[in-house]
Amino acid sequence: MKKKIITLLTLLVSALAFACSCDEIHPMIEFHSSEYVFEGKIISKVYSKDSLTYKVTFDISKHYKKGDAPKTLEFTVTSEGELTGIFDSCDWSAKKNQNWLVYARNLGGTLSFSGVCSNSKKITEYAPISLREQTILDHAKAFKIENYIFENESGFNYCKNITDINTILESGKIKNYENQITLLNVSIDTDGKLKSVIRRKELIVKKDSIFDLITEIGDSNKKPITEFEKDAIELVTQVKIWEIKKHQLTGIKVPYIRHIWIFYDLDTNKWRYEL
What we know:
The chain has 275 residues and is an alpha+beta fold. The chain folds into two domains: 22-143, CATH 2.40.50.120; 147-274, no CATH class. It contains six helices and 14 strands. The chain has helices at 2-17, 27-33, 81-84, 131-139, 165-169, 227-236; strands at 36-47, 53-65, 72-78, 99-107, 110-112, 121-123, 181-188, 194-199, 203-207, 214-219, 245-246, 253-254, 256-265, 270-274. The strands form four sheets. Strands 1, 2, 3, 4, 5 and 6 form a six-stranded antiparallel β-sheet that branches. It has a four-stranded antiparallel β-sheet with strand order 8-7-13-14. It has a two-stranded antiparallel sheet with strand order 9-10. The radius of gyration is 24 Å and the shape is elongated. It starts with a helix and ends with a strand.
């Protein structure tokens, strides 16, 4: 009995260690990137001759992103690991008579959806659409992506500085600073230009009550600024030009904030940074 328990615990730990890993996708961002978003029931599931894929057909009961509002949609999905022989932690399956909320994207001319790393999901009596997500779906038509400020959300390009930071840091003051590290936030506009530099610990954000995305940022100014922070902010304020952030599917430019660590080494009297 003891051996069985140990074996079960080992399997559980192994399963957790290799759990499917992917970035969380904000429902509204995935909605914006999708061609169709709908609720529907799977009325057909047919495997291919080699059983490596199957086709599922949805009877659509409600469109959230209508487009041409088809009554049915068909998707080709990779078969379960027990049929393909490829087992991984991201294995999933769709079955006939299941009800789903689907975020369908057009990838290379092929309409697809996924039960992992997506907000697409089975809907059951015990796992309905959450109130938060339902609110987002019901108000999605009013969403304009350019009205929000983004950080590290999926669906955008990763942005770095264009102005060379190292050159600017070389002009930094040489002092015996009491503190030698600070985390700052830079606010960048839709043209890639610096708007402001704020200490991370003093950053305040205002979020939209429906979509839970940032609409405004500010500085709380609650804690006194140290001499090191003051000089660090002066240096980072000279980093005027950054890459433009765009929604990858639509190409719409958006404002954003980036974190930047600034350090000062008392032994070498050198400034450095990390993004």
